[in-house]
Structure formats: C-alpha cells, structure tokens
Amino acid sequence: MGGTVPYLTVDDGRAALAFYAAAFGATVGERYDEEDGRIGFAALDIEGAPVFVSDEAHDYGAYAPRTLDGHGTAAVVLAVADCDATYAQALAAGATQDRPPAPLPDGGRGGWLVDPFGHRWLVRSS
C-alpha cells in the first residue's frame, strides 16, 4: 500500500466503526481486537480510501480527541462522488456540522464536519 493513510484513535472503537459505516459507507477489512475488548486495529475502506481506526492505547501514546478536551491535531479530507449527499448522510449518522458544503477555491465543493469522536473531516467532491 502506498500513500498516506489516516490512523484515527477513538474512545469507543465499536461505536466508531458503526458510525463510519453509517456516515460514509465504510467497510471493515482486517481487524484485531484486544483481549479486553478494545479495538487494537481496524482497516476501513471508504469509497476506495483506506482509513485505520483503533481504540485509545495510552501505553502507546494513542489518545482520542475527546480525552484531550476535544482537541485533535489533524483533519481528514475525504474525496467522495457527491459531497452534499455524503455530508447529509454523516450528519444523519451523528456528525456535527462545522461549515456546510460550499464551493472550494479549486473549483470543487466541500463541507467541514466533526465526527462523534472529535475528528474533523472535510467532505469534498470535484
């Protein structure tokens, strides 16, 4: 696999996998669950784009935004076929609107939202 893959740390892995499926149509490929029930690793596919997800693992320095008072240090840009439809679907699944879909400077269209786990997403289409 080449390129860059976002690896999101969440505070409720099972709920996150359900949200990403409902919001973005994500499917889960490879997955590893810890003995205590936490998700150690899950590989998602969202419209052909890979995204990795795991529960927090403080011993590895992996903290979720909600644990850090809702602050994250990066955002995910998700290219989709229909920005408005995907954005609405994500809101219906539980995301919070940041900035609604609008024209982007490069001629595309995009809108910002925050998932229930504190990660910011730019959902965009060409």
TrEMBL record:
Source taxon at top rank: Bacteria
Residue ranges constituting the VOC domain according to the UniProt record: 1-126
Residue ranges of coiled coil: none
PANTHER family: BNAUNNG04460D PROTEIN-RELATED, VOC DOMAIN-CONTAINING PROTEIN
Protein name: VOC family protein
